[in-house]
Amino acid sequence: MSLTRQPRLTGPFRTAAAEDLADLYLQGATIRSLAARTGRSYGGTRALLLEAGVTLRTRGGGIRKADG
Predict the structure, then answer these.
(1) How far is Cα 3 from Cα 65, in angstroms, rounded to an integer?
(2) Are 42 and 34 in contact (CB under 8 A)?
(3) How far apart are CA 45 and CA 52, in angstroms?
(4) 3-state secondary structure string, the chain?
(5) pLDDT tens digits, one per residue of 22-57
(6) 35: Cβ–Cβ under 8 A, 6 or more apart, which residues?
(7) Which of 9, 24, 28, 32 has the CB geometry, 3.0–4.6 Å to 14, for a possible disulfide?
C-alpha cells in the first residue's frame, strides 16, 4: 500500500478548499470522512475547517435516551 502526498494548498486554492470542506462539514460530514474523501490527513482537514471559521462538533454525538 503506497500513500501519496497531496500538494500543498496555498493562497486562493487553500481558501477555496477550506470553504468547500466547511460546507460539507456543516451538512453533517465528519472530519474523518472529509479527510478520506480529499486524501488529506485528519489534522490537516481539521486545520482547514478551523481556518474557515467552523465551530467543530463535540466528539461522540449527542446523549442518547434509554428506551422505556
Answers:
(1) 41
(2) no
(3) 11
(4) CCCCCCCCCCHHHHHHHHHHHHHHHHCCCCHHHHHHHHCCCHHHHHHHHHHCCCCCCCCCCCCCCCCC
(5) 999 999 999 999 999 999 999 999 999 999 999 999
(6) 41, 42, 44, 45
(7) 9
| Grid cell at residue 67 | 428506551
C-alpha cell at 46: 481539521
Length of the chain equals: 68
Cell readout for 51 is: 481556518
How far CA 50 is from CA of 3, 13, 57, 63, 67, in Å, comes to 25, 16, 12, 25, 37
Model pTM?
0.79
